[in-house]
């Protein structure tokens, strides 16, 4: 029994961090709900929870070490444990209010000082660093905590369920109280487990009221909470409605205005999108996403100068304020560099365009826009080729199987998948696929080509090609979701190969040509 409980506990701990509180909940249940002297109950509770506590501690320490490294690292807000806990006392009041009066529900909440809880790194910390525990909200939160703690001890013998419900409530808050720093200050989903303690407390209160009064209050609660639940369902009806609900709850939220702007941009209502992006920046000049999105719309409208100015402002903010270890911030930074590269390319400033494209790829090696911008630059200025990202192979290596062989760059990988050889650089920005076609001979060229009727989008061009040491070669160029794809066939010693390059760009052409020419048939 114990072994199966431990196994199930481990599975729970590895699934969701909230389950770390299970040993504490078991401990609280043992000393509050069961009869006996307090000393014997403490000893029994300790023995029961000890193996689970040790497992939690080991898993927690391993995860904490991982989360303290590189891009996963999260620090206390403004680097201060004290200021973070002052804020969390205000958050505790918000949690209790949401349990009692669940209106204005939102993915993002605004705490005093216009502090947004969903993505804390966008906030201005001018207000935050001047917080004090002597403010009314933290003092009220502390008084509530002290009062409820005293109530736990006072009710422990006469009304143990009341004590346990309060203990459950506060124990459930512990993982989200930023004792260990987190990226989110408040989230309604953190109330899911805690709400059981609140409901149990409410049931205890209703139980001790006169029956008619308790029944009347219960009916009113069911009607009011049921109505609120029904109305909340409409906020989740569409992908856009949840952001619109956020804006209704917090009209002065920079995040809410930004996300509503994205809704209008998706609808191609660009004037409305620009309004909300501008509103977002007025409310919070640190809203880096809004800079990027607004700049993109201005660029589409042909106002490159204004777009560039916004992006340069964004870069200054990111370099000074934002946590550069956060993945979403880095991706946004890469997009900004890629757009700056496009603007410089439009202005024929090739040196500047190439520099920005390199920075975009350095931050996010999967940024296709940056690679395509770099491809256009290399078409105009081939001399940049020696410095182009990922296209200086520094040597070649050989792939060999029993039927054929070919060479490919030493800084690329080769994977065999379903009879095909897939070549790609480390971050898979480009891909070359080589496949030996069975069942056809050199003399079947026309019949073979007619049989190859697969589509990769819109066929742009097809024609015979010339490749040294081949019987014949044939190329098809496709427009695959606005990106070029090259479908290439060659015949060597009666063996036909299909070679596909995607996206087929200027930067990839040299490597593609060398791979094709290196194919040897045994």
Could you please describe the fold and organization of this structure?
- The structure is a single chain.
- This protein has 522 residues and is of the alpha+beta class.
- 55% of the residues lie in helices and 14% in strands.
- It has 18 helices and twelve strands.
- The strands form three sheets. The protein has a seven-stranded antiparallel β-sheet, with helices on one face.
- Helix 4 (81-100) crosses helix 5 and helix 14 (327-346) runs parallel beside helix 16 (368-380).
- The chain starts with a helix and ends with a strand.
Oligomeric state: single chain
Low-confidence blocks of residues: none
Structural class: alpha+beta
Question: What amount of the residues lies in strands?
Answer: 5-15%
Major beta-sheet overview: 7 strands, antiparallel
Side-by-side strand order of the widest sheet = 5-6-7-11-10-9-8
SSE order? HHHHEEHHHHHHHHHHHHEEEEEHEEEEHE
In short:
With 522 residues, the protein is α+β, with helices and mostly antiparallel strands.
What's the topology here?
Blueprint: H1 2-15, H2 22-33, H3 38-67, H4 81-100, E1 110-111, E2 115-116, H5 136-155, H6 160-173, H7 191-208, H8 211-235, H9 241-249, H10 254-266, H11 270-283, H12 288-300, H13 304-320, H14 327-346, H15 350-363, H16 368-380, E3 396-400, E4 404-409, E5 412-417, E6 420-425, E7 431-437, H17 445-451, E8 458-465, E9 472-480, E10 483-492, E11 495-502, H18 506-517, E12 520-521
Antiparallel strand pairs: 1-2, 3-4, 4-12, 5-6, 6-7, 7-11, 8-9, 9-10, 10-11
Helix pairs in contact: 1-3, 2-3, 2-6, 4-5, 5-6, 6-7, 7-8, 9-10, 10-11, 11-12, 12-13, 12-14, 13-14, 14-15, 14-16, 15-16
């Amino acid at each position: 029994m114990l072994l199966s409980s431990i196994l199930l506990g481990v599975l729970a701990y590895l699934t969701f961090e909230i389950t770390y509180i299970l040993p504490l909940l078991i401990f609280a249940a043992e000393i509050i709900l069961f009869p006996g002297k307090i000393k014997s109950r403490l000893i029994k509770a300790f023995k029961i929870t000890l193996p689970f506590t040790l497992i939690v501690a080991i898993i927690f320490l391993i995860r904490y070490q991982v989360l303290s490294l590189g891009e996963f690292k999260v620090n206390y807000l403004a680097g201060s444990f004290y200021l973070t806990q002052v804020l969390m006392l205000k958050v505790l009041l918000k949690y209790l209010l949401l349990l009692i009066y669940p209106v204005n529900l939102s993915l993002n909440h605004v705490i005093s000082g216009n502090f947004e809880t969903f993505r804390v790194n966008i906030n201005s910390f001018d207000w935050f660093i001047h917080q004090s525990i002597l403010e009314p909200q933290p003092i009220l939160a502390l008084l509530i905590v002290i009062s409820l703690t005293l109530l736990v001890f006072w009710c422990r013998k006469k009304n143990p369920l009341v004590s346990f419900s309060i203990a459950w409530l506060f124990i459930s808050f512990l993982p989200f109280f930023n004792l260990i720093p987190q990226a989110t200050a408040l989230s309604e989903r953190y109330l899911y487990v805690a709400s059981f303690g609140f409901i149990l407390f409410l049931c205890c209160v209703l139980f001790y009221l006169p029956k008619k009064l308790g029944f009347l209050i219960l009916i009113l609660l069911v009607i009011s909470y049921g109505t609120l639940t029904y109305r909340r369902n409409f906020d989740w009806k569409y992908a856009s409605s949840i952001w619109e609900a956020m804006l209704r709850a917090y009209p002065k939220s920079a995040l809410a205005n930004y996300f509503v702007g994205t809704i209008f941009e998706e609808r191609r209502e660009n004037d409305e999108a620009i309004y909300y992006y501008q509103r977002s920046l007025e409310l919070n000049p640190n809203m880096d996403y809004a800079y990027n999105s607004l700049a993109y719309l201005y660029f589409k409208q042909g106002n490159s100068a204004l777009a560039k100015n916004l992006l340069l402002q964004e870069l200054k903010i990111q370099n000074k304020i934002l946590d550069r270890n956060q993945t979403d911030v880095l991706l946004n930074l890469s997009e900004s560099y890629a757009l700056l590269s496009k603007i410089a390319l439009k202005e024929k400033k090739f040196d500047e365009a190439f520099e920005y494209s390199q920075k975009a790829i350095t931050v996010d090696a999967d940024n296709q826009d940056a690679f395509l911008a770099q491809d256009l630059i290399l078409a105009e200025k081939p001399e940049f080729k020696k410095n182009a990202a990922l296209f200086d192979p520094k040597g070649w290596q050989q792939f060999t199987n029993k039927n054929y062989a070919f060479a490919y760059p030493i800084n690329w990988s080769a994977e065999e998948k379903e009879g095909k050889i897939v070549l790609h650089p480390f971050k898979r920005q480009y891909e070359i696929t080589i496949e030996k076609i069975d069942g056809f001979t050199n003399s079947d060229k026309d019949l073979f080509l007619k049989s190859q009727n697969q589509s990769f989008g819109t066929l742009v061009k097809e024609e015979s090609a010339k490749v040294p040491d081949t019987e014949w070669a044939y190329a098809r160029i496709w427009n695959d979701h606005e990106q070029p794809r090259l479908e290439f066939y060659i015949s060597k010693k009666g063996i036909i190969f299909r070679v596909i390059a995607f996206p087929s760009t200027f930067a990839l052409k040299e490597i593609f040509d060398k791979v094709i020419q290196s194919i040897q048939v045994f």
